[in-house]
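Sequence in, structure out.
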Amino acid sequence: MVLYLAGGALTGVLLQSPANAHNGAAATSPTRGYAAAAPNLSGVRSPAHAQYAQAAETAPAGGSASDVISLQTIEVTGERRPGELPPAYAGGQVAQGGSLGILGTSNVLNTPFSTVNFTEKLIQDQQARTAADTLINDSSVRLTTGSNGFDDTFQIRGFQVSAADTGFNGLYGLISSNRAAAQYIERIELLKGPGALANGIPPGGSIGGAINIVTKRATDEAFVRVTPTFISSGNFGVHIDANRRFGANKEWGVRVNGLVRNGEASIEDGNLRTGLGSLALDYRSDRLRWSLEAITQNDDTKNFRPQMTLQSTIPFVPRPPDARSNWYPGTKLKQRDHTIASFVEYDLTDWLTAFGGVGYRKGTNDQTFPDSRVAGFTSGADALGNFRLVNAYYDSYTETVSGNVGLRARFDTGPVKHSLSIGFTGYGQEAGNAYVANTAAQSVPSNLYNPSPLPIVTGTRQDPRKASYQTLTSFAAADTMSFLDERVLLTVGVRHQEITTQGYSTTTGARTTRYEGNATTPLAGIVIKPWQNVSLYANYAEGLTTGTIVGAGYSNTGSVLAPFKSDQQEVGVKVDWGRITTTAALFQISRPSQVRTASNALAYDGEQRNRGLELSAYGEIVPGLRGLASATFLKPELTSPTNPLERGNDAAGVPNFTASAGLEWDTPWVPGLSLNGRVIYTSGSYLTTANTVEFPDWTRFDLGARYTTTIYERPVTFRFNVENVFDKNYWLTTGNFVTVASPRTFVGSATVQF
């Protein structure tokens, strides 16, 4: 059976040899072929369609055109099963679509935004340890902290996005505020630009983009995969992924993932010990989809990757030290995260679906917190790497409840098809800390290239106490209207958001600050498809950022800055060429700038306007050769700073050009062997808004291989990757806050499936 797209429906053409014609039998394509074609009923030609169409145009091997018996054309129609993820695109590294919160799940070509949906296959083949290792495949995303550090902090379209702003199946606050482990991830959905309408206000106020983690759930194929792992310079572990469905129709599913590892990672004399477990239970029927998910994640790190500030007045940026060195010998970090959440969807009718989810998370961080910002001395390192160092305990916790509930309706009004959604989101988080630091008199001199051991903290370690409580609630409504047989799709929506932020004294427990605010943020997007494989789109979106609670190191520590709005305008084009999709987007995002004032206070100052051009391509270039490539050109301009001499300057720490490109090739001479390579480039960026001192650009090269075979009738996959092949030392920065990227790292594994 050969399937290809004709007139918006699936058409079956039966190819038979004379023998098959005689006995009435015919070889059919696997059932999986139907599933792959299902989401393309709108007329978008998928890779599977391209393969089948090509087969239909040729005679069977060894036969002639006369051997082909033409039968009556049949049409097969179908849809993806409710709750199922969109299938992978050609090459399997990205998906054909993804979820957009209240807007529901949509094909990439039908989405009026710039989105990328990375698959589990890519995560596994690149041996990602966290979501950050995969997200850097997109040029608009850059990691500004190194591996084995305190957390994963990103820049997306030139604006900071913290790990705490990562969604968990559409809900904020339930992923570890430090990093999302790769072992429980099925998809990583990246939406570029403000995402407040889709999922509500991110707790950290990110506007550059939104990251959503889709967790693993049970598939129809039962398996147990055991994967021993190795990370240089001596970190060993094992990952177990077990999956099974039960019931007459496989209604019940169980998916379990576990990871243990221990040993030295990327810092000399350091040690990373991890214990992680995740459990996903789910039930599915014709109308009901339900899941219960739990994750526990424990990391103990000795000598974690350091971060520090540089003096703003230095004449040049100091050279980066050896990436294996530790500027703060003797640091310790314990991170604990526990999450439980449940999600449900129920089809009330064939056109109306109710959905909801609720989750709880408790996270703690216990760490020694060396600091180069010493009162009474010039803060940070100078151009020669000299700085003064104090040591401190900085322990913290967060306790979060997050949820949503809503309705989705699908109906027609005359020739217009509607996909209407209404929803409510609620989020509440209590955060506490205990900061016990040595005095300036107890500080010691140190140097990036010859660090001093950390002095002993003389104060008594204390239990963290409540420092803030934040609630975010919102109501939203959105409608996607399609016209002219889905050649024009118009999306309009609005979200009304309420913010309450309260600050508390960690000494007395008394409330010290309170802020209440609300705002209404609209969204409008349009997709025009002059051809079924071409989408022209435009959008206007607004983001709302909660008022920042000023942290340690500022003269106004503990105060709350007012919330503010940001906005984005974007136009673009997406083309599906059959096996390769290309995209181009022009965008502009504007928001108030945050600066450190002359009085050492954190405050708003003028506006930062990022204008950019994004180009990308992904898919299967030729059979056996897969690729991802993207480039971002950016102008992060200060439009109205207090200092008129800085008008038109670049924002600190934001590069003007970034590029990411990767290829994977199935070698023809060794069945089962695939080779891969990746290059990541980031241009220089400025230390401060004065634009007098610049960080150098950097390029990172990665290489890898994968070999799949069978041993004792068990599928086995060997993977080996080398990251930062040339062991280049370079700065990762958001301006005067810096760290050094990871050194050359070897990652190996062997997956055995039972």
